[in-house]
Specification:
Elements (H helix, E strand, L loop, with lengths): L1 H8 L1 H36 L4 H11 L3 H17 L10
Protein name: DUF2312 domain-containing protein
InterPro entries: GapR-like_DNA-bd
GO molecular function: DNA binding
Length: 91
Amino acid sequence: MASLGHNVVGIAGDQLRRFVERIERLDGEIHALNADKAEVYSEAKGNGFDTKIIRQVIRLRKIDKAERQEMDAILDLYLEALGMKAPAGDE
């Protein structure tokens, strides 16, 4: 049983410590990147851009074109069904 304790504390403990340190380092990098991103949004806002719309544009750019077209078609259908959009051809 003593060797199991040593293994858990020695080798596994060192390996665990390395994982934790790597994760902490990555968390620090993520924090720095998020601060940089916030600064860019602030700069855009200062230049008169709507940051909500910029975020939406970024989200849309991540979606495949065909998938986005399908989403737009379904959105139009839903809006029309709720009376929030004129039927096609009536615009």
